[in-house]
Specification:
Blueprint lengths: L6 E6 L3 H12 L3 E6 L2 H7 L3 H4 L3 E5 L4 H14 L5 E5 L4 H10 L3 E4 L4 H13 L9 H5 L13 H14 L5 E4 L6 H10 L9 E4 L8 H6 L16 H4 L4 E5 L6 H13 L1 E2 L8 E2 L3 E6 L3 H6 L5 H7 L2 E4 L10 H12 L9 E2 L1 H9 L5 H15 L4 E2 L5 H6 L30 H15 L4 H8 L3 H11 L6
Parallel strand pairs: 1-2, 1-3, 3-4, 4-5, 6-11, 6-12, 7-8, 8-11, 13-14
Antiparallel strand pairs: 9-10
Helix pairs in contact: 4-5, 8-9, 12-14, 15-17
């Protein structure tokens, strides 16, 4: 840490533009940055006065896997406790696997979002190891349809039901929920269930675009429209013509750009910066925010008229801590997807490890769970993950305290038979838990659920009504 209390970050990157971006983002959280163009300069820096005070290293994966791994090993050998983060291209799973096995603390994915860089830096120096909450496996795996999304908790299934009904219409959808709950997964499912599914959905992180470039990025610009506009740029809305555009972190959009977005919603037309005439586009908007957007409206940070234009259909995704019974099935599902990535293999997970995951509060939600599983799978040499493969979670002690009236599903996949006071739970509650567990395990495929439970489909639906279980998918 520097004398003025700032933490010190060393960026190992040979691209000046990338260095300026990362250092500017880190500066927002009070970090000062020093730079190294290559491995030789990075090693030399460790011997300087600034190098002695380093709090973290961020290595851009510009080198091949072997060279990067060698550098990480060298850095780790000289500074065993120094956090080392690796910045890797989207989809480069083998690079992330190689880096972590060489001793990297964590990885981040380009393009960098400000809050994820800051979260990774804070996690690295605090030793919590939660780091990047958007792992590579989330982006390279195929999008899921509504019937493939894992989760049987009633509020979660109800949210999916609303999204599924809205998918077939052209109306805008606003998805609210904490960071990491899976808002983009739901957006992808909405797109996949819509008439626009033949074209890919285009995702835009509004929080990752500099305020002065939002209008150009979304709507494009003409050559010479402003200083530095050396050629014509096609904006994201024009690229998404005939498809769906996903505006993530919509609450971060500057007020000036909100006015232009409102105009698009009202007229169906965009006007690139510097263009004389607008052009018509056919784009379905799905927006997402980790904020309460109505609170932002009341605070004057978000336009009220735009809010109501976007909020035709609202979907609120509950945090993972409110659907702990989904964690065992979700963890196994994520492990199966992780095993499909280059350099990784199928691996099991013990009941004790699953119980540890169920008990944890998951402030980073599904992203954090997937990241923890990915990290554990990369570093594990055994055939199954155990509690020892999740040291950060085991040491944090951040646990959920369940009320006596709450029936928690054990990680083993069974159903709790006794209340906390030692008495048996009512048969109706146990039956409801069994049905919920089956719906989650078979991903909402009700014919399969009925068959596995040994009852008719009509009987299953009757029980759903009697027990107050929402089966919507």
């Amino acid at each position: 840490m520097t004398r003025n209390g700032q933490r010190l970050l060393m960026l190992i990157d040979d691209e000046p533009a990338q260095r300026r971006l990362v250092s500017a983002l880190a500066a927002r959280a009070g970090w000062r940055s020093i730079f190294a163009n290559d491995a030789e300069m990075a090693i030399a820096t460790l011997g300087t006065q600034d190098g002695m005070q380093l709090d973290c290293v961020l290595l851009d994966h510009w080198a091949d896997e072997g060279a990067a791994a060698t550098l990480i090993c060298e850095l780790r050998g000289r500074r065993p406790q120094l956090p080392i983060l690796v910045l890797t291209a989207n989809g480069s799973v083998s690079h992330a696997v190689s880096a972590m096995r060489s001793g990297a603390t964590d990885f981040l994915v380009k393009p960098l979002a400000p809050e994820r860089l800051i979260a990774a830096l804070d996690a690295a120096v605090s030793g919590l190891g939660t780091g990047e909450l958007r792992p590579l496996t989330e982006k390279i795996a195929a999008p899921l349809g509504f019937d493939e999304i894992v989760g049987s908790e009633p509020k979660f299934r109800a949210a999916l039901a609303i999204a599924a009904k809205a998918a077939r219409a052209r109306v805008p959808v606003l998805i609210e929920g904490e960071s990491g709950v899976g808002k983009e997964v739901v957006a992808e499912a909405v797109h996949a269930a819509s008439p626009r599914a033949k074209k890919p959905m285009l995702a835009v992180n509004c929080g990752a675009i500099p305020a002065n470039l939002v209008e150009s990025e979304l709507f494009g610009h003409e050559k010479g429209a402003f200083t530095g506009a050396f050629e014509r740029k096609i904006g994201r809305f024009a690229q998404a013509d005939g498809s769906t555009i996903f505006l993530d972190e919509i609450g971060e959009m500057p007020l000036e750009a909100q006015v232009k977005l409102l105009r698009v919603l009202e007229s169906g037309e965009i006007q690139p910066v510097g263009a004389r005439h607008p052009r018509e586009v056919d784009v379905r908007i799905v927006a997402a925010t980790n904020k309460k957007l109505l609170d932002e409206v009341e605070a004057g940070r978000f336009r009220e008229d735009l809010y109501y234009r976007l909020n035709v259909v609202q979907v609120t995704i509950p945090p993972l801590r409110e659907r702990a019974s989904d964690i065992p099935a979700l963890a196994r599902h994520l492990m199966a997807r992780i095993a499909q990535q280059p350099g990784l293999r199928p691996i099991g997970i013990t009941d004790a490890a699953l119980q540890l995951l169920v008990d944890y509060d998951w402030p980073g939600n599904v992203r954090q769970l997937q990241n923890a599983l990915f990290r554990a799978a990369v570093l594990c040499d055994a055939t199954a993950l155990t509690q020892a493969d999740f040291p950060q979670i085991a040491s944090l002690g951040e646990r959920r305290t369940l009320p006596h009236s709450t029936a928690a599903t054990p990680a083993s996949g069974g159903v709790t038979l006794f209340r906390a006071d030692g008495n048996m739970r009512p048969l109706e509650e146990i039956e409801a838990d069994v049905i919920r567990l089956a719906i989650g395990h078979y991903r909402g495929r009700m014919t399969e659920v009925a068959r596995r439970l040994g009852i008719g489909r009509s009987t299953l639906y009757r029980k759903l009504g009697e027990l107050g279980i929402d089966n919507a998918a």
